[in-house]
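Q: Here's a chain of 332 amino acids. Please give me its 3D structure as tokens.
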Amino acid sequence: MKRALLLTAGTIIGLALLIGVFYLFPFTEFLGIILNIPLPLLGAYALVSLTIFLLLTWRWSLVLRAHNIDLPKRHIVGYRFVGYAVSFVTPGPKVGGEMVRAAMMRRDKIPYPKGFSSVIADKTIELSSFGLMFFFSLSVALALLPIPTGWRISLSVLAAILCIFVANAFILMIRGKDPFMRLFRLFRLHNISVMKKYKQEITEFETNILTFYGKNKRKFWQAQIISAGAWLLALVEFYLVFRMLQITPAFIEVFLVYSAVGVIYMIPIPLALGTLEAGQAIMFTALGFPAAAGAVVALITRGRDLTWTLIGFILLGYYGIDIYKHQPQNSP
């Protein structure tokens, strides 16, 4: 009930922000910008976006091979589309599709814990890349943007905590330690009766993850290189968006706008409704560009995400799934 109320409140806030953005900027202004977008640039943008998606899918295939999981390529691509779709409509930083992705692998006779560990390993690589990007972009923003002293101190502390957390997690995993069970014990989750039945599953998938980090260092670094390549292509993607709007940006401007999208998606509002448009309008204003152009950038980004989400849900309907089949049984 509480979760439903929070979801409803987030949706209402998002809709209010979205209506506010369209109220501040006349529809004709949006339409004029959109109609003047050169089709060749739009096509190039779509091609780069698809390349990024396929690169990240390739990264997951490396993780799967490290876990000795052999899936048909069409299933790897399809399951990742489904995971993307579920994560996109889930409030929060594009998470939620991992469980569904792992559950779908049961169709290929892959045990849930093993499939889930491959998905989590892939997700930790993604989050570490995002954490590094967030730390770097935050440092750049603190150095270049006129941020009030109070916010500057708070953001600096946040960046330092994030950096320490990510570095510590990776050091533990590379050394073969057990970061997940440590958190499990730290928060005394093992004393909660409902959580006891998950202890064995957590231990099992953590063992698989530690095997990946400890014994498959070559694939780990290959996955990191792929992440870096996808990250660079994402900057190209946003540069193309700027050029669609007849703006020639500096590298740092592309970087800040791209980083802002990642941060905005962390806000627990479904589909980043309203927050994406308002956040990009504010960012463009701070950089000295028309706010309406920032809102159009948000609409283009949303259009891409909704396209992948639509494909994902179509595939989910085609495959069919019962995500509850993997639930562990109570130990005797």
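Q: Can you summarize the key feature?
A: The first helix runs from residue 2 to 24.
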